[in-house]
Amino acid sequence: MSSNAGRRAVFLDEMGVGPLWTRRDAHVARVEDTAASADTNSPDTGTAADQPRIASTTAMPATVDMDDLPWTDVQLDGPPKAPSAPEVAQMNWIQLKASVAGCVKCDLCQGRTHTVFGVGDEKAKWLFIGEGPGRNEDLQGEPFVGQAGKLLDNMLRAIGLQRGQNAYIANIVKCRPTDASGKDRPPTAQETEVCLPYLERQIALIQPTVLVALGKTAALTLLGLDPDTPVSRLRGKVHRYADRPLIVTYHPAYLLRNMPDKRKAWEDLSLAMQIYAGAD
Ligand code: URA
């Protein structure tokens, strides 16, 4: 077996696809059961009424020195003023984390339990970008902690990475978007627009070699494309964002529901690895 084929087998195995000769119908049914019961993007068991509809009061981590915050010197009275995009673009990690934790730039702050800043190696060469927190992420304050997160961890492992080691995981928006009945929904254009400066600053601070957009919201937001553009049209190409190569692949939650496409996700990660290997 070639090393590429070997890696592919490991990947497919990690993602629960192997062995390759398994009857697909039986296998799909098994994975769909799992996805339906535990997928972070599937309808919630909790309701909006279960969730406190108040803004988080844990705005400042204990380690933040107020003098580090760029807007404290100009804000003498009233509630803290939200930093502008140019101000965000100058922040260090501490300022950025504090700013996200206290963000009130859009209505998503009203329903959140926690902001979900991102997690991983702040010097990572790989940056994986998802859509936004779901229910579990909102409760725990960390991205991709449900079943989709387990699959993402397996995908990382298959290419020799893990959370916190040469990989960083972030989202397009930092607060959980929900619909009127308390279920997860994609962020609106206005929500992504006001939140994007935070991700842009994360990219500037991390300086990753390769960006991987996980799913439609991440890909279309970063590439500024029409909402009707299918992910399938964006795969297999090297795009650019923030002057860095960007590979588009399927969202892990989608892969949980569409198991045969895991092979395509492996092709996408293989392309990303080629780009990474060829980068300076
Ligand atoms: N889906 C995402 O896109 N991001 C998360 O953090 C969790 C689920």
Could you please describe the fold and organization of this structure?
The protein is an alpha/beta fold and 280 residues long. It has a single domain, classed as Uracil-DNA glycosylase-like domain (Uracil-DNA Glycosylase, subunit E). It is 41% helix and 9% strand. It contains twelve helices and six strands. Strands 1-3-2-4-6-5 form a six-stranded mixed sheet, with helices on both faces. Strand 5 and strand 6 form a beta hairpin. It binds uracil (URA). The site of uracil has 13 residues, from loops.
CATH fold call: Uracil-DNA Glycosylase, subunit E
Number of helices: 12
Strands, count: 6
Count of separate structural domains = 1
- N→C terminal distance: 29 Å
Strand line-up in the sheet with most strands: 1-3-2-4-6-5
Question: Which shape, going by the Cα principal axes?
Answer: globular
Q: Give the second-level CATH assignment, the architecture.
A: 3-Layer(aba) Sandwich
Ligand names: uracil
Beta content: 5-15%
Q: CATH top level?
A: Alpha Beta
Low-confidence stretches: 19-60
Category by helix and strand content: alpha/beta
* Helix content, binned percent: 40-55%
Order of helices and strands: HHHHHEEHHEHEHHEEHH
| Rg from Cα | 19 Å
User: What about the largest sheet?
Assistant: 6 strands, mixed
Mean pLDDT score, rounded? 83
Tell me the CATH superfamily: Uracil-DNA glycosylase-like domain
